[in-house]
Design a protein that fits this description.
heterodimer, A: 337 residues, mainly alpha, two-stranded antiparallel sheet, 16 helices, globular, B: 287 residues, 73% helix
Amino acid sequence: MPDQTLSVSRSTRLSTVAMGVLLVIIVVMALAPWWAGRADLRLFGEIFLYLALASLWNLLAGYAGLVSVGQQAYVGLGGYVFFALTLLAGLHPLLAIALAPLIGALIAAPVATLIFRLRGAYFAIGTWVVAEVFRLTAAQVSALGGGSGISLPVSVVTTLASGRFLREALAYWLALGVAVVVIGAVFLFLRSRRGIALMAIRDNELAARSLGIDIWKTKFVVYLVTAGLTTLVGALIFLQKLRISPDAAFSPNDWTAFVIFIVVIGGIGTIEGSIIGTLIFFALRETLADLGTVYLIAMGLAAILIMLKAPSGLWGLVRGRRGLELFPISRRVRGLG
Amino acid sequence: MEFWLEPIIQGILLGGLYALFAAGLSLIFGVMRLVNIAHGDLIVLSSYVALTTSVMLGLHPLAAALIVVPVMALAGYGLQRLLLNRTMGNDILPPLLVTFGLSVIIQNALLTFYSADPQKLKAGAIETASLGIGPVSVGVLPLIVFMTAVLVIGLLQWMFYHTALGRAFRATSDRQDIVQLMGINRAHIFALAMALALAVTALAGVFLGIRTSFDPAAGGSRLIFGFEAVIIGGLGNIWGTLAGGVILGVAQTLGAKIDPGFQVQAGHLVFLIILAVRPRGLFPRID
């Protein structure tokens, strides 16, 4: 009998190729300011920001089981933190953006201790209450325009970079950067000890606890990291928009409904699903842009249908039983012949 | 004294409406552990159904309720049987996301059919009628809403503990699997619970439409108010739901007295404080 050496590895030939392709895509997209038009650049920026939001919500709901319908709380918080730090405190926009995730995580800590008292589905509505509290609070801040909102003055905008080309390119690179950082962070987190603990909790909470995993703490950390990064994305969204109002900043449709539909349609609980969902969402939006309410109804129907017929989403259908992975997360045993 | 007495009484009566929002939510959670994200949108949908029936048939909105309540109950039975029963299981994700999708669909369908313009149910003289009780005057309509809420909650309580249907509900709530062995059809019991919940919801929708104007986006806050009433009162306690609604209503009217822009926020803050101090609510059912 020949020597049989068994080994455990995470990468497959497919995942190695995929990671290579991904790297090329990132480089090509980083050069977009030189090959894409202004409108396209804006669209790409928006795609990357939604990609980041979707990946974060997927980590929260798909991996940590914390189904939030109130992530608009942190998107709006990010926008308002960015406006407050630049407009009222006079900080440089880039410094304001760097501080946004820290402030987001700091505020999320007491919020989490409070709403973690709500179990399962009631947690979801609790997150919505928090978002409403944030929105109503923002509407009371008259220095930032109160209920009607405020625009970022040109004087602040010009401190970001001198020329328009550089300014728009910078906003775009920040969006691309945050998408790469978020997906990279989710990927590395899921491969880490804590990430494995998280997936163990998702698969069987009782068994996970008996192995000594601190469930509350693990979920708390995920909630904080997600909230901080969502706040960062929020700051970048309103850097692109240059105007903020409570209704736009804390919109449940824009920052939660679309994001949930993206993740559910693409495939909840996989990194690839959020990416595919985002691409499909924008492909449909660009072709059916004028339909408005009909588009939302169609997205809702699609999400319900997928939840009933193929709960692992489109990526789940592609992935099939062989468990294809573009991002190498699961371990596989090799050498079994 | 009278300065505060008036808003407190108004708040108590408003609490009746919130208790009606909450009763349906509490009922379906109690029987099948389902949290319906579309609950608020179903309330607003009921308001629109009442609007259409009262305009088309020339009926008083309160008379239209006689049509809206059975229609919504039937819709609830169908909704549970055809859609929601397929999502029931140990995983909370499918029911949450399916009802979330439903919420977005209802909202946008209403937007397409009725536009975003605010609507109101016209109930005539009863809207402004009031009774003088001692130093304060109390609106007749809020009083009717409150008394209806007490009646509905009393009936639900009686049904739960003194009828065969209530026994089936409680048994299903305790052990979904064993109940099947006793010859109870779980799918049917769930659908009956949803039908009953939507009947209460329909009543809430009619009262909501008479009291204030409503638009397709109004559902979210109705869900939140109902949910806050449930949590304040204590999960699983139906009379607690009424108490929760009253506390929320009083918090809101007192908040409005301090500053009109503070009304809704005051309710949220009281909810968060109670969640911090008594996470199981004020009157949790003793298990």
